């Protein structure tokens, strides 16, 4: 009790008629929702685990296939980039210290 949980359903409301449309199941739990820029009835639902699904609001049962993005690749690239920048900064500081010592 007292904990937040992610609702596995997308609740869509039509603001023109002020009524709720049928709920759309998205079991991984939506983290981000965006409308498709070309198709106004399409929503992109994304979860924190990298799972995403395109959903048509007018026909919610039409698109039920999920797609998965490998988020571990981005984590490895971030770690590699961080280590590379740390080594580069260390070498740069070492060279700057050596030049300052030689100039004195």
Helix and strand element order: EEEEEEEEH
The rough form would be described as elongated
Number of helices: 1
- Rg, please? 24 Å
Biggest sheet, spatial arrangement of strands? 5-6-7-8
Describe this structure in words.
- This protein has 104 residues and is an alpha+beta fold.
- It has two domains: 1-69, no CATH class; 70-104.
- The protein has one helix and eight strands, in the order E-E-E-E-E-E-E-E-H.
- The chain has one helix spanning 71-103, and strands at 9-10, 13-14, 19-20, 24-25, 32-35, 42-46, 51-56, 67-68.
Question: How is the topology of this model organized?
Answer:
Blueprint: E1 9-10, E2 13-14, E3 19-20, E4 24-25, E5 32-35, E6 42-46, E7 51-56, E8 67-68, H1 71-103
Antiparallel strand pairs: 1-4, 2-3, 5-6, 6-7, 7-8
